Amino acid sequence: MNWGGGLTAHKTVWSNDCNDSLTLYLDGYVTHLFNNCQLRSFDFCDRGCLSRYMLLKTLSPIYNDLTTAPQFGAGASIYAVSGINFATRNVVSKINVQGDATLRCIYEHENISCNFGFNVFGRSEEQLCLNPGFPCDLGSSHTYGFKGCQGTIYFQYAEDGAARTSGTGNIIPTTSTATNSATITSCGTVDNGVTTDLGPGNTVGVDWSNPFRGDGQQAVSINPGTLVANLVVAQTSNPPVALTDANLNIRSGQAASLVTQKGFVTVDYQWRCKRHEPYISLGVEVEGGTHYYDIAQWGAWLKGGFLF
Questions:
Q1: Contact 118, 246 (CB under 8 A)
Q2: pLDDT tier for residue 29 given thresholds of 50, 70 and 90
Q3: pLDDT tens for residues 262-306?
Q4: DSSP per residue over 225-237, as a string?
Q5: DSSP string of 204-259, one letter each residue
Q6: In which region does residue 192 sit, left (phi positive, over 0), alpha (psi from -120 to 50) or beta (all else)?
Q7: Backbone angles phi, psi at 103, to 5 degrees
Q8: CA–CA distance, 201 with 178 (Å, rounded to integer)
Q9: Residue 83, Cβ density class (10 Å: 0-12 exposed, 13-18 middle, ≥19 buried)
Q10: Within its chain, how far is the Cα of 273 from the centroid?
């Protein structure tokens, strides 16, 4: 809903007995745009343009042993989701002031009229307020962090001196709570990283994306604490970094203040005293602003019509 006021005025500043005249016209309005509920998507703070599409990872609830956890089947509780689901929110939008004004000078001579004008349009910066909840069904019991290049699971290999191959051995998939300092263009590093290598006689975590060598042989050597080539020791975050509303860059989804100016010229010819009084009009306009995000365009037109 809008509220405001406007002004329309004109004044003939010159005329003669030959029906020549010069008239000034002024039209303007100022409005206030009241609260309006909308959907907006936001980038994340310090993560880069379009970071709203980064992958996120669920952080709760968490099952440490995936062999018994529901997400090892159909009911996953740790998984990757698109950041746009978290970054799209219900908002309340308000623009305090918006205005438009046009000053025109029209010269008329017999069947010809020339119109010279200037228009200015402006609005204040949009004000946005987040509404609670998510328009996308993410689940109220879940929290999220940046996934980055870390997987949602890693594999534990027992270091008991026996060879572990792709088909045998005690290979345990385990949820990875690692969050990441990634941006839209880089993997970043693990937040509060802790290695999963627990030492000889225990287990070592191997990154999920490369759990085996290319030949399918053992992923952890029979020498405790060492890995074969092309394997990466997995890391977890202690503690992981969860996302909150404060991570959303509100300015990335709001309209900035705007001021544009437009100049235009039209020339019209009308066949008066003819049936339907046909007319033809030729015009050009140029529009621009003071900021890089302001409207910048030009146009030209030729049109005709008649009255009935």
A1: no
A2: very high
A3: 999 999 999 887 788 899 999 999 998 867 666 689 999 999 998
A4: T-B-TT--B-EEE
A5: EEEETT--S-TT---SB-SSTT-B-TT--B-EEESS-----GGGEEGGGGSPPPEE
A6: left
A7: -115, 125
A8: 24
A9: buried
A10: 57
Q: How many CA atoms lie within 13 A of 291 on its CB side?
A: 8
Where residue 290 falls (left for φ over 0; alpha for ψ -120 to 50; beta otherwise) is alpha
pLDDT at 220 over 80: no
- Token match 């698109």: residue? 82
In contact, 225 and 159? CB cutoff 8 Å: yes
Q: What is the dihedral of CA 7, 10, 13, 17, to 10 degrees?
A: -170
Residue 197's Cα: distance from chain center in Å? Answer: 39
- For 50-68, what is the mean pLDDT? 71
Neighbour count for residue 43 (Cβ, 10 Å): 23
Confirm if 253 and 131 have CB atoms less than 8 A apart.
no
Q: Establish whether the linkage from the previous residue to 239 is cis, with ω within 30° of 0.
A: yes
pTM, entire model? 0.71
From residue 198, how far is each of 8, 67, 217, 290 by CA, in Å?
A: 80, 20, 22, 61
Which DSSP letter does residue 183 get?
-
Q: Which are the contacts of 288, defined by CB distance < 8 A and separation ≥ 6?
A: 260, 261, 262, 294, 295, 296, 297
Reading the block at residue 304, the tokens are 């005709």
